[in-house]
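[step 3/7] fold_predict: job queued, chain A
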Amino acid sequence: MNTNSYLGRLGVGPAASPGYELLAGLQQAHLLNIPFENLSVIWREPIVLDEQRLVEKVVHGRRGGYCYELNGAFAWLLRHLGYQVTRISARVYNGSTQEFGPEFDHMALMVRLDRDYLVDVGFGDSARQPIPLPAGEVEDVSGRYRVIQRNGVPGGYELQRSGEDGWLAQYAFTTEPRQLAEYAEMCHYHSHSPASHFTQRAVCTIATPTGRITLSPAALTVTERGEKRTHPIAETEYSLLLWEHFGIRAA
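[step 4/7] structure written:
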């Protein structure tokens, strides 16, 4: 596996020197070209947390994945382009219970340049650019996001998104470097447990320049500049739409 194949999957040419502009461009390109999807979970395909396997799936398999796969593969690319990147553990906030999930509930990345940045290509609808640490705010077509240091949350850092009711927690995280194998137990939980929302139904979503396209077996949802339109679909349409919008052939 070489970086040019991965860059080609992102629709970008050979990379320049590692810096902020390149990093931001790669993050956005990843979100625009590689979907967040749980199809391996639904189709009972094994998910192996091995960097080469993850990169092969994303690049040559022309697939997406969920956080462990997408951020796991992206970390490989960034490292081979010369970035100082570490995996970090995050706990996703549950608005219903008003609690954060367990350790390794989510994988995100931290990249060190002139300062540290939170980078995440595996959280579905999320920031499209690096967020400065220890505290910073960004805004793009997907919304406004900020990181704050906050006592009482696991790890001491919290990613928030601006909504109608103010700033809402997305996940809490620590900046402690983690090994890929440390996520294995939670990856298995999310891909096998009946209590995991990933095992409930198929979802495939990808960013667009003006919004997002999301497909489930029941509906196609197109979001443009904040306006969301949902179209119910027939069972026979699902495979066609999966290929048309995401380039994925149904199993």
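[step 5/7] annotate
The chain has two domains: 3-199, 204-246.
Helices lie at 3-9, 20-33, 39-42, 51-59, 67-80, 184-192, 238-246.
exit 0
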